[in-house]
Amino acid sequence: MRKLIQELMHILQKTSLIFIIAFISSAYALEPVADKPDGYSVPALRSESVLKSSVGVRSYGMGEAQVGRSDDLSSLYYNVAGLSTMRYWEYGLSYSAMGLDVGGVHGLLAAPLPYGTLGFRFSLYSVRNTYQVKYGKRDHPDRNKYAYLTQLSYALPVYRKILHTGLTVKYQQSELSSAPDASPPYYQAYPKRERGLYFDWGFLATYDLSELEGFWFWWPKVSAGVSVRNMQPKFGFDNEAKGISPQVNTGISFYYSYKFMINFDTINEIDEPTRFQLGFELWPIYFLAIRSGFMASDSPLKGFYWGVGIGESIGSSKFSFEYAGNVRTYNEFRTLTETYHRIAFHQSFERVFRFVDSKGRKRQIKIAQTERYNTPLQFAYIIDPNEIIDTAAELAKQQTDHELENEIKKEPDTTTTTTTTGGEQGGETEEQKKKKRPVIIRKKTVAFYPIVVQPPVEDPGIKALRRAIIRGIIAHKKIKPMSEIRYKLNPRKESGEDQITYLNRLCKFHNVNMVILSYGRYNEADDSITLEIQFYKRGSKTINGLLTKRLYKGNTETKIDEIKNEVLLQIGSIL
After folding, report:
1. Is the pLDDT of residue 196 over 70?
2. What is the CA 340 to chain-centroid distance, rounded?
3. CA–CA distance, 62 with 50 (Å, rounded to integer)
4. What φ, ψ does residue 515 adopt, rounded to 5°?
5. Regarding the domain delimited by 382-414+438-574, which CATH topology (the fold level of the hierarchy) does it fall under?
6. Strands, DSSP E only, in 160-300?
7. Which of 460, 561, 559, 552 is nearest to 207 (CA)?
8. pLDDT tens, 231-247?
9. In this structure, are residues 513 and 497 in contact, taking their beta carbons and an 8 Å threshold?
10. Domain limits, CATH 3.40.50.10070, in the chain
């Protein structure tokens, strides 16, 4: 099935631009309708309407509820702070229907910087010129009218990639000059031109509640945001738009990565009733997303949204196609129902990390930059136990931490002698003498290999974690660590030898009872390391998981004691 999808995406990749152009052309070629007066499309082209017209097809399918979870190009409209979470290049081309015979085409781009992300947007709104009007003409009376908006955005993380903020500056202009054959009074009812300079500001906070563990372990990730849109300082431009009210929007999102998301937004504007927007996204399979949403307010306006997306990674690129629709009803004097459609094409570029492994082989890892259209481990390069052991051996050869060596030298003998004294001296019975004899406790040996992190990343907390666990093993009553020198001496895995046979032979070679292998997967998107600790018990037939923990780079020291205690408890119970 996956090969079929990849073949389909290869074809779509080659024809993507043709597809977009063909769709936009077909969107304009609608069936003829009755004649329209001059100025019919002006309300949709005026500055206020253009500034409130959203971009982003994925978010549109979710009821336009995206303030609390703007993690794609739609952040350029909903919450600019979300742009900070995009640490990869991506562009998007889309078409949106606006009503009153007006359609918009949009070009969006995200460009990561060493710190923060830049965003660009250009939108052009014009009248679809394929309508039959009186006298048999195929020209719309508003065919010369258009509007455009261009913007530049910048967003950056302000605390551990958990808190983000961003700012947008945008320029909008509407050209509403009358058609040459227009007649009064229609063209006199609106200005010939409107323009203005506007600013948006946004703030976004994200947190994984499962990090709290215990009661919170099964809770989802949470994200909340606030954005202020369309702030308009008065610059005194000619034809400067008037009466543009800023919006103050809030949102919250709960989501399980790669599975499900639910968003809730409130849209607040002066002299307008508050709108409530609810949307969700479901991933039944990694390359398919299903979306829906609702919009309601105290006004007669209501809306229902739906959408679908499909995507696949090919090489170092990810391609996706999005569709969304919306039915709006307005019930006041009579019921009016309108349907709108949107479609988009996106291409993002994943980061490829290239390195040479311990055997001198060239390797590469495609880093999953987003949680859309990929499984959690789709891009991860999972190395087998033999490779972890080889890499750990290389790390041991480069070991310069004398403090750890000194701790190993302090390791107690393999036996512990305890003396039990009974009764008074001089009058001991035979039974008391037996109790007085030394009780020998033989410690079992554990080989705890250095922690391998891929892609390689410097984090002092990782070394400190292993050091703390080794010290804990030394102080344990039942177990002891293997000598550091032996980590440099490992038998090679023979050709055709399976992992279990090799690990069992490794245990015999080092005369250890357990081998513990640790692998860290670094995720640049949130600067975290997912630590997987596995163990093999001598003579067993399986490799078992010991611990899985997500750590944030630069903050691993705070979790050392917690991880150490859990690892020692698990090892003690197993051996």
Report:
1. yes
2. 29
3. 20
4. -115, 125
5. Rossmann fold (3.40.50)
6. 163-175, 193-208, 221-231, 247-256, 260-269, 272-285, 288-297
7. 552
8. 998 888 888 888 888 99
9. no
10. 382-414+438-574
